[in-house]
Amino acid sequence: MTNAAVFRSLHDPADPLVLANAWDAASARIVAAAGARAVATTSAGVAWAHGVRDGGALSRDAMLAHLARVVAAVDVPVTADVESGFGATPEDVAATLRGVAEAGAVGVNLEDGAGPALRPVDEQVARIAAARAAAPEVFLNARIDTYLRGVRDFDGTVARAHAYLAAGASGIFVPGVVDPDTVGALAAAIPAPLNILAGPGAPSVAELGKLGVARVSLGSWVAEAAYGVARRVAQEAFGAGTYTSLAGAIEYGELQSLMSP
């Protein structure tokens, strides 16, 4: 079975796919060694690793080169966060998807946000159709940003989901909602694998699976937590002059082992 087929098969509410999103080759290897069945990138973490803001500041070429290193670092399937597709036109999105496939990734997240607003449905449908045509084997996870942007429009979200699936999406990602009643209703109304963004305070993976969720992502939370450790360590060393925040670090030898070819 190909990595693409394996990845597609992992989307099952009976045993949801859990993605502790990585942002570089090292974090990808750490996540894989912890038992990940697949590795996902986080666009925010990748952007921050390059010293730029999330949301279009990184170039497509830089993203693809970074993605290729992540793919080469692990044996499990890799899915890439490609933001809104790295370009203004459907042709731009198609070019991005071809690059993702060439880098060896088997999935993407493609969001429908455009700056401060959501793209009109017809525009996003055209972008998804172009992505599908450019990379037929890639699992296309269509992200709907209604709830993430505070637009709690259930009917509108479901309508977008159906339109995106008709255009070629493989699954639907609705970040910004963890309320069990809403999540369960979304899972029932969307005839495709549903992906939910989880973090502190969200239902457990098992609880989300019972609601019909097939995929649980941690998004940028993992990178944020790692950078939080770096800040706490620095503040403690510069302030109290102590080092207790370093407790719990992965030992040098273990990291060396994980990074060995």
From TrEMBL:
- What domain of life? Bacteria
Q: Could you tell me one molecular function GO term of this UniProt entry?
A: lyase activity
Q: What UniProt keywords apply to this chain's record, in alphabetical order?
A: Lyase
- This chain's protein is named Isocitrate lyase/phosphoenolpyruvate mutase family protein
Organism of provenance: Dactylosporangium aurantiacum
